[in-house]
Design brief:
Elements: E1 8-12, E2 16-22, E3 30-32, E4 37-38, E5 47-54, E6 65-72, E7 92-97, E8 105-111, E9 117-125, E10 135-146
Antiparallel strand pairs: 1-10, 2-10, 3-9, 4-9, 5-8, 5-10, 6-7, 6-9
Length: about 150
């Protein structure tokens, strides 16, 4: 079946790096990515493919997670939502499940309806090990629209 004019198709934007060389993340701590993600600067696409690259020196516990949280920006004029901490995590986005390996792990999640403008934090949630420095987090905007 051919895709016809005005059929719905997935449109993918340019990948944006939120963190290119993150610092080490100790077990049970939370660290913010360097750059916020603003959908208005990225084609107003409400969805993203989130790509996380991590590595451990000592293998983490299998099937444990790194959790992604958001702190929305400019929610009341220029006032921002509180940044997540290990004890305060109001806006859960997703979990990346890790394997018990020391090689680089490339983890991907499709996120629907991300906050319009937010800073993201990664919580090393009981993996038992520290994530090595130089982890990366990237978002690729996605939306559905008519074909040309």
């Amino acid at each position: 079946m051919a895709i016809g004019t005005n059929d719905s198709i997935v449109k993918v934007g340019t990948q944006l790096t939120l963190e290119s060389a993150g610092g080490a993340i100790a077990n049970n701590t939370i660290v913010a990515a360097a750059t916020a993600y603003d959908i208005s600067a990225n084609g107003n696409a409400p969805h993203v493919d989130a790509a996380l690259m991590i590595q451990y020196t000592t293998a983490p516990a299998v099937n444990t997670t790194l959790n992604l949280y958001a702190a929305e920006q400019d929610i009341d004029s220029t006032n921002d939502e509180q940044v997540p901490t290990t004890t305060y995590k109001p806006k859960y986005i997703c979990s990346f499940t890790v394997n018990a390996v020391t090689t680089a792990q490339y983890l991907d999640k499709f996120l629907r309806n991300v906050p319009r403008n937010a800073k993201y934090s990664l919580h090393n949630n009981g993996t038992g090990q520290s994530v090595n420095a130089n982890w990366t987090l990237k978002f690729t905007p996605r939306t559905i629209g008519p074909s040309a």
